[in-house]
Amino acid sequence: MASLSEYLAWRGDITFDEVSLTVVDALLLSQLSYLNLQGIIGKTERKKECTLAYAAKRFWQLHTEEEFADCVSFAVRSAGVLLREMAKTNRFRDLVLRNYVNRNDLTLEEQFTALEIVLGRRESFISFGGTDDTLIGWKEDFNMCFLSPIPAQLDAKSYLESVLLGSGRKVYIGGHSKGGNLAVYSAVKCKKLFRRNVLHVYNFDGPGFSKEFIESERYQEMKERIETWVPESSIVGMLLEHEEDYQVVKSSQSGFLQHDATSWEVLGAGFIRLPAVKESSRRLAAGVKEWMSSLSPEELSQFGESIFEVLTVTDAKTLADLNKDRWRSITAIIQSFSAMDKKTKDMLFALVKAMVSANRKKETSKKSESEEIKQIGSAGPARSVGRKKLPGNSH
Asked: Of 76, 176, 188, 328, which is least packed with CB atoms within 10 Å of its CB?
């Protein structure tokens, strides 16, 4: 079936004036905020805004193919390739990029990126970045499991309000992974004056929220405008709670690699849908949730600090840094693990046990999954299957 690149070849000659935003367009635009556009656009740069075509040209003047081939983050790698392909199309090349923000704050434990993409005279797409390869970004993701709001969520709300202030623009909001969570948070939490300007929110395999958040009046008011997509073997998107309807997309990859949005399979102007998330993913998410619920917020915070200290014992700031000298990193990490206090070690082993248990249950469920797929196949095409709610939800 078709990929995002093939979608660009098929739909690329049609402008947004001719055909409005599709869900595949939203995913493509959500990928752009993974890129480091410093030196191209921004408050401190020579240009405060530029066309997508110009951004692509300058980006590949500043970066090399070899640099991207060695990039640990598949999201960043893929975004660079997609930017170049999008710049070749009538549909995307003349879109204006502006209000770019890229913030990494070790003190606040925050990694935040955002970008406004002007679709026309009155509409924009707000793209929130997911986690890149910075260790502080991954630490912030873990904080999301017990801390609300995290700094990036507060910045997402402020960013959306600053874009809408005095503009009267209508906006689509989207993001992949953590960016999807930020998209939902900003739309729900922004001032009531601005919420009417939000046309639609796209959450692509992003984690959910606390039960209190999804039961709030503001969330309930925005729920019908939130669209969530997760791959069949979703892990990130199954964390925490969701109440909005979600749809399952077919991926050409397996396991965690399905989180890579470039593996999602396209059919026309949409995605190929599947009936449900795999049982193995449900069980893994349930195991992690059970482990988390057994700990207090203070214990989870301490656990996150301990793991972060272990990973940064080599002075690494990114996954790429860890990858440069693997043996040195592994040795240092093992030594650091051995120095952990017993309570932290017990929490780590409990997490591993929950994940292993989910994997064992996966093996026993393969036969029933296979039978379910056969029954669905005999009932008709996958795209006719209705929407479902995420598991673990009490509503």
From this structure: 328
Residue 370, pLDDT above cutoff 90? no
What is d(CA 231, CA 278) in angstroms, rounded to the nearest whole number?
A: 9
Q: For residue range 67-96, list pLDDT tens digits in order.
A: 877 776 778 888 999 999 999 999 999 999
Amino acid at 72: V
What is the model's pTM? 0.80
DSSP for 199-262? EEEEEES---B-HHHHTSHHHHHHGGGEEEEEETT-SGGGSSB--SEEEEE-BSS-GGGGGSGG
> Would you list the DSSP string of 163-206?
HHTTT--EEEEEEETHHHHHHHHHHHHS-HHHHTTEEEEEEES-
Q: What is the mean pLDDT of the chain?
A: 81
Instruction: Judge whether 100 and 42 are in contact, CB under 8 Å.
Output: yes
Report how far residue 86's alpha carbon sits from residue 27's, in angstroms, rounded to the nearest whole number: 12
DSSP lists the bridge partners of residue 249 as 231, 273
